[in-house]
């Protein structure tokens, strides 16, 4: 079964103008109607670092789940954020950004990789107590622009450490959009075979014209979990100045359906969500 993770949080977080809380909530409520497996809806991080996400708790209070099957994921960058996220019963997953690049780990969470791994372990213990799941994003998982060490073998070392911590979901993240189809296939194939107990996801950033080949590369390797954002909006504001957008969800849907996958989405609600993106991100 294919899992699509829709990421309005990633789409919104780098936009300089503050999006009104009610507008954010209305957009996420529409996404909840579509039938995505999970909505990456917000983050509990420093408002100084990511001011766009300072109202995540208020947005959550305005969400109306109806009969939505979608689960909620919130990003956290430290123990304080994790504890806040864990106080909300509506949140199913806590996402933590662990970087293969030391430079990016410092830029993104103001902590070393070693410190971040300790935080992952603490959050994992808290999640087990609270009945939640942690999703670890391996940022810069396909290379970095800083000259920090990188290799597929290094990625495997990180996955091994996370496996020892009983992490069940790891999303390999191409934070700056440099992954090639060959590297995507290689990384996922090796990790999926080596760690069958772990669900591996693809959080890739890409130019629109390269999305289909990247999805197909992941599929070839056995990846069944893909993150995206409608219209390919967003990118990581901590990575570098010029953002490479998220994988456009609508292109991923077209690619996956052309391969024969039935995604179980409400297409009429998807059309409405696509219309809303133009209002939300230009308001």
UniProtKB/TrEMBL annotation:
| InterPro entries (UniProt xref) | Aldolase_TIM, HMGL, PYR_CT
Instruction: Name the GO terms of the biological process aspect.
Output: ketone body biosynthetic process; L-leucine catabolic process
PANTHER family, per the entry: HYDROXYMETHYLGLUTARYL-COA LYASE
Q: Name one Pfam family in it.
A: HMGL-like
User: Which molecular-function annotations from GO does this UniProt entry contain?
Assistant: hydroxymethylglutaryl-CoA lyase activity; metal ion binding
Record key words, sorted: Lyase, Metal-binding
Pyruvate carboxyltransferase domain sequence ranges: 1-271
UniProt similarity note: Belongs to the HMG-CoA lyase family.
Q: What is this protein called?
A: Hydroxymethylglutaryl-CoA lyase
Q: Which CDD domains match?
A: DRE_TIM_HMGL (cd07938)
